[in-house]
Write a structure and sequence with these properties.
The protein contains seven helices and two strands, in the order H-H-H-H-E-E-H-H-H. It is 50% helix and 3% strand. Strand 1 (116-118) and strand 2 (127-129) form a beta hairpin. The radius of gyration is 20 Å and the shape is globular.
């Protein structure tokens, strides 16, 4: 009969014994170069964003309790966030920026697989996790714009509350969960 020995395996580390690790690809890129390449819309910018997406996918896979580190931020929002940070920190390497961002986003990560729901209009299809819709509904309730109990469904009552919120914020009152609306509802608490 085989014996299983638990707890005797040394803890896994993500670096050598001195805390060093090899940085691959665009992770070596400095912020200044990232901003320049994004401004040009160059292939190097898109390669860097591909590296970022790979990093985030790996983060999702290897961190317990994380289905998706980005609860609502898409590539467009992420690129703009990186650009904003990098303009203030031109000598910082991209891998450090992404590591900081994942730490900041961690409290709002999607912990378990969540359903995607349509949260746009017939003209603009927007897919978000139902958990995000529930968070939006909670925020709209706190703002006094929504009476219903948050349920994660993008229904007409939620759309009406969104329109009222958008009007208050000076946004186009379309009732959609677009990037600007999501940032104003959730972004400040997630960054």
């Amino acid at each position: 009969a085989g014996t299983v020995m638990l707890g005797l395996t040394p803890a896994a580390t993500a670096a050598d014994s001195n805390g060093r690790f090899a940085i691959q690809g665009a992770g070596k890129m400095l912020c200044q170069a990232f901003v320049e390449e994004r401004t040009k819309g160059s292939p190097l910018y898109y390669a860097a964003m591909g590296w970022v997406q790979g990093y985030l996918t790996s983060y999702n896979q290897f961190n317990e309790g994380v289905f998706d580190i980005l609860s609502w931020q898409n590539v467009k929002v992420l690129g703009a966030s990186l650009d904003s940070h990098c303009k203030k920190n031109p000598t910082q390497p991209l891998y450090q920026v992404i590591r900081q961002m994942t730490r900041a986003y961690r409290p709002q990560a999607i912990p378990e697989q969540s359903l995607l729901v349509e949260a746009g209009s017939s003209e603009k299809r927007i897919l978000v996790y139902d958990v995000v819709v529930k968070r939006v509904q909670q925020r709209l309730r706190r703002e006094g714009l929504l009476e219903q109990v948050p349920n994660g469904r993008f229904d007409s009552e939620t759309q009406l509350a969104l329109r009222l919120f958008q009007e208050r914020q000076g946004l186009k009152p379309n009732g959609e969960l677009d990037e600007s609306t999501l940032y104003l509802l959730l972004g400040k608490s997630e960054n």
